[in-house]
Design a protein that fits this description.
single chain, 236 residues, alpha+beta, Aminopeptidase, 2 domains, 8-stranded mixed sheet, 4 helices, 15% helix, globular
Length: 236
């Protein structure tokens, strides 16, 4: 039997979230703000973050009859090696998110990375099918950019903010399969609306899908604040 581990969940700082994403998520980057950043600690050791944001598309919630401010996208689950099931960490993070009164969470499992959405299936999200195929751009350093993150002008507008971008002519253009789309309604009314979109869960695409992010070696991290919002004991 594994030793007892104490899980703590609290709001995470920008620096903490940035560190986790750059070290423990395949994107190696923070999503575009505004962000809701929720950190996780085991035995007072930082193990990563769960991040919710508006997502890259301003039309994310339109198919469900919602305004952009009425929901969000789960954009990062960046965790290092840990004992607590990811499903438990995510469930608690959603409880924190509810304080912001969203009605719906949307998330995508990237089949191009070998993911099928095991964490969403384990926590009873609604699978609604695949998104449309898209393109990604890879620069000379090997960094990947979404099509909305590149522009021949050298800048574009994301969430109302003008941001510098790389030019697509400076990258290799690669076609990507659509991503698996999952929905998590936070109100009874929205659940009634989106449950009709439910489809059978997709099966694991490959052994590469380890839910959230692959395990990494021990790293230092920020310690949690004194007034933690949740504490749970994992008996292994």
């Amino acid at each position: 039997m594994s030793s007892k581990s104490i899980l703590k969940i609290d709001w995470a700082s920008h620096e903490t979230a940035k560190y986790a994403c750059e070290n423990w998520h395949y994107s190696e980057s923070l999503p575009v703000p505004p962000l809701v950043k929720i950190g996780a600690w085991e035995d007072d050791k930082f193990i990563g973050v769960v991040i919710f944001s508006r997502g890259a598309s301003s039309n994310l919630l339109k198919p469900y009859g919602l305004e952009q401010v009425e929901g969000c996208e789960l954009t990062r689950v960046a965790l290092k090696e840990h004992k607590t099931p990811v499903s438990r960490i995510l469930s608690i993070a959603i409880k924190f998110l509810k304080k912001n009164s969203p009605k719906l969470i949307v998330s995508f499992a990237d089949s191009n990375e070998g993911h099928h959405g095991g964490i969403y299936q384990a926590t009873n999200w609604i699978y609604s099918g695949k998104s449309a195929p898209s393109f990604k751009y890879v620069d000379k350093k090997g960094r990947e950019w979404h099509s909305r993150q590149v522009s021949e002008k050298g800048f574009n507008t994301q969430q109302g903010n003008i941001r510098r971008t790389i030019k697509p002519s400076q990258c290799q253009k690669i076609k990507c399969e659509g991503k698996f789309r999952y929905l998590f309604p936070l109100t009874k009314e929205i659940r009634k609306d989106v449950i009709r979109l439910s489809k059978p869960y997709p099966k694991r695409a490959s052994s590469k899908d380890i839910v959230a992010s692959e395990f990494h070696s021990e790293e230092t991290g920020e310690t949690p604040s004194d007034a933690l919002q949740f504490q749970e004991v994992d008996n292994g």
